[in-house]
Amino acid sequence: MISAPTSTEIANLFKNSDPDEVWPKVTEIVMRVNPAYDFSFSKATFDDVLRLFHGEYPGYCPIKTLYHNQSHTLDVFVCAVRLMHGVHLSGTHLSDRDMTMIMMAALMHDIGYAQLLGEDTGTGAQYTKSHVDRGIEFMRHYIVDRRFPPDFATTLEFAMHCTDPSVTISKINFPDERTRLLGQIVRTADFTGQMADRAYLEKLLFLYLEFEEAHFGSYQSLHDLLLKTCEFYEITRQQLDGELGGIYGKLTFHFKDIFGVENNYYLESIEKNIAYLSKITLLNEQKYLSMLKRGGIVEKAKSLIGPEKIR
Question: Which run of H or of E encompasses 135?
Answer without folding.
Answer: helix 131-145
